[in-house]
């Protein structure tokens, strides 16, 4: 189902906010989590489920097993921005898109040229030494041949600056995202199941004119949408 009026709603908007999830990056070759072919539906380990591996306790108890999974399934350094990322960056350059709020950790919005990106779940491109606190780029993880990457400054364990299960989201970042959504006249929600809290709850704060919801499958908030698009995010935004 495609609501062609969503294009006109976006064209006449001057204060757009984008809220996106893993589906935004599937067209860049990065798998999502909860779809039929997503990461959580695949048995990637004989002993542990992905949700267990991607938890804070597991990281500290089994760092080598964590990094074996993380390096294999969570890192996609060769992925390139798709049509959706590029269109959003264009809308920001025009001054009409005020913020990108993303649940993704891949950094593709920034690579496409977006500047005001609020990464609710962190980024694979930031990695912090647990001992000295120094931040390191992605290469510190991908380029270290050891089972667990260590800080070149002090030898401490490096932890990705991503939000794992059992960890809280950054409160200030959530407040900034909430403020942008409250002030938007159009909110584009795309590529997210809208089942992960508290991030998904941000959508309910929207009080503007047009809620454009783009997703391949139904979500709990479809009834709230003024424009509902079933299909490719890249095609939906790239065709503007």
Automatic annotation (TrEMBL):
Positions that bind Zn(2+): 129, 132, 151, 154
Any Pfam family matching the protein: SIR2
Location in the cell: Cytoplasm
MF terms (GO), sorted A to Z: histone deacetylase activity, NAD-dependent; NAD+ binding; zinc ion binding
UniProt keyword terms in alphabetical order: Cytoplasm, Metal-binding, NAD, Transferase, Zinc
Primary enzyme class: transferase
Entries under InterPro entries matching the protein: DHS-like_NAD/FAD-binding_dom, NAD-dep_sirtuin_deacylases, Sirtuin, Sirtuin_cat_small_dom_sf, Sirtuin_class_U, Ssirtuin_cat_dom
EC number(s) from the headed UniProt entry: 2.3.1.286
UniProt: nicotinamide binding residues: 33, 105-106
This protein's GO CC annotations: cytoplasm
Details of cofactor binding: Binds 1 zinc ion per subunit.
Cofactor: Zn(2+)
Residues making up the signal peptide according to the UniProt record: none
SUPFAM superfamilies with a match to the protein in the record: DHS-like NAD/FAD-binding domain
Start and end residues of each Deacetylase sirtuin-type domain: 1-240
Catalytic activity, reaction form: N(6)-acetyl-L-lysyl-[protein] + NAD(+) + H2O = 2''-O-acetyl-ADP-D-ribose + nicotinamide + L-lysyl-[protein]
Residues bound to NAD(+): 22, 26, 33-34, 103, 105-106, 121, 192-193, 215-216, 233
Active site: 121 (proton acceptor)
Family the entry assigns: Belongs to the sirtuin family. Class U subfamily.
Function: NAD-dependent protein deacetylase which modulates the activities of several enzymes which are inactive in their acetylated form.
Stated name of the protein: NAD-dependent protein deacetylase
Native organism: Paenibacillus albicereus
Originating gene: cobB
